[in-house]
Amino acid sequence: MRLHGTMRVNEKGHLEIGGCDAVDLVRVFGTPLYVLDEALFRENCRLYRVAFARGGGGVLYAGKALLTLAVCRLVEEEGLGLDVVSGGELYTAVQAGFPMDRVYFHGNNKTADEVRMALSAGVHRFVCDSFDELDLLSRLALELGKECNLLLRLTPGIEAHTHDYIRTGQIDSKFGLAIPNGQALEAVRRCLERPALKLRGLHCHIGSQIFELEPYADAARILMEFARQVRDVTGWVIEELDLGGGLGIYYSPGDDPPAVETLAETIFGAVAQAAASEGLPIPKVLVEPGRSIAGPAGTTLYTVGTVKEIPGVRTYVAVDGGMGDNPRPALYGARYEACLANRMNGRLDTLAVSLAGRCCESGDLLIRQADLPPVRVGDVVAVSCTGAYTYSMASNYNRFPRPAMVLVRDGSAELIVRRESYADLIRNDIVPVRFRTRQA
Known about the structure:
- The structure is a single chain.
- The protein is α/β, with parallel strands linked by helices.
- The protein has two domains: 8-37 and 295-425, Lyase, Ornithine Decarboxylase, Chain A, domain 1 (Beta Barrel); 38-291, Alanine racemase (TIM Barrel, Alpha-Beta Barrel).
- It has 13 helices and 21 strands.
- The chain has helices spanning 22-29, 38-53, 69-77, 87-95, 112-121, 131-144, 183-193, 214-234, 260-278, 291-294, 328-332, 422-425, 433-436, and strands at residues 8-9, 15-17, 20-21, 33-37, 58-62, 81-84, 103-105, 125-128, 148-155, 177-178, 197-203, 240-242, 284-287, 298-310, 314-319, 338-340, 353-356, 365-367, 380-384, 404-409, 412-417.
- The strands form three sheets. Strands 4, 14, 15, 16, 17, 18, 19, 20 and 21 form a nine-stranded mixed β-sheet that branches. Strands 5-6-7-8-9-11-12-13 form an eight-stranded parallel beta barrel, surrounded by seven helices.
- α2 packs parallel to α9 and α8 packs parallel to α9.
- The longest helix has 21 residues, at 214-234.
- It starts with 7 loop residues before the first strand and ends with a helix.
- This is Diaminopimelate decarboxylase.
- Belongs to the Orn/Lys/Arg decarboxylase class-II family. LysA subfamily.
- Pfam families: Orn_Arg_deC_N.
- It is an enzyme of class 4 (lyase).
- One of its GO terms (biological process) is lysine biosynthetic process via diaminopimelate.
């Protein structure tokens, strides 16, 4: 397994993260356990902030990747803005005291209650996804006496080379308003007709886990060409251009993500060239990284419960977690690397080993082909690069409680998410009155 951030192998032959021995973390906090490397999370934030500040741009951390009260504080301290996509994410930001003048509110079906919450809280920008949402924003902004500053989310017709489930830039998508069929221009007209709405810019997001940078440059050129068409028709001039997130990370051999600095250079170059070509001022450029900040900073620790060898076929190593705490492998075949955190120097087994979860699903395999030493019951398995879209997508399937999360730094570990209990699982359950009295 490739080591990331502050990971190292200590003198005991154990995996260490943030100066904390993984075996000690398991002893104190139990498993499954999400471990977040604070130093690496902060470093990734700074890489983006510095790279995009050079061109006068801005960086919004995509909260959907991983959002807790503590994560909000880290993002705030590192000087980034925040992209939220639901009332729950917005509520988390509010409770963390995150500055609302750095919050952008996304989502393709915002409810009236969510919009009221956001307007009342003073969210900086709404990213509008449909004509119906324009109607809702206009009505509620007038009702509350607020001004609604917004970006229009557009679909530029770009299909990034990634999994079908995480492509979003093509025209046939639940997200955004299409440019080629005239929907985008009609949305601009409607914004400009409504006094409570202030159109500030354009947005697009072409997908996730992207390794090729040319689609970002293509998206910039397409949106800037559209901005020129809008100016010619309506007189409106673009102020902000938000190109979303999606930069890929290393999960397993074969993944070769570009550097953040290269991404910034590509985007700024394309925007500047397009602005000159279209006769427009250069807008403020925004990006929304999530995975590439949180992903490499996260590791999940598990305890091995059973080792089942099928002679001549493979060995199934079952851990005390699985698709409940990380649905990505089952959902779209995501690949990961793993190691034995308590025996980092062990020689790798030559047999085929599958790392299996404990959910009652044959598809609950965390890693189909894991490179591990011969595994024993009680071993501690570490799966790397699980900081993004694991905790945020976790479920209680099979009534398994969701894991705890710790923040590690300089040899200390702090609990930032408590482990759910069985009592938490039934906290919202209600027994109908007719069932409450039972005959002896």
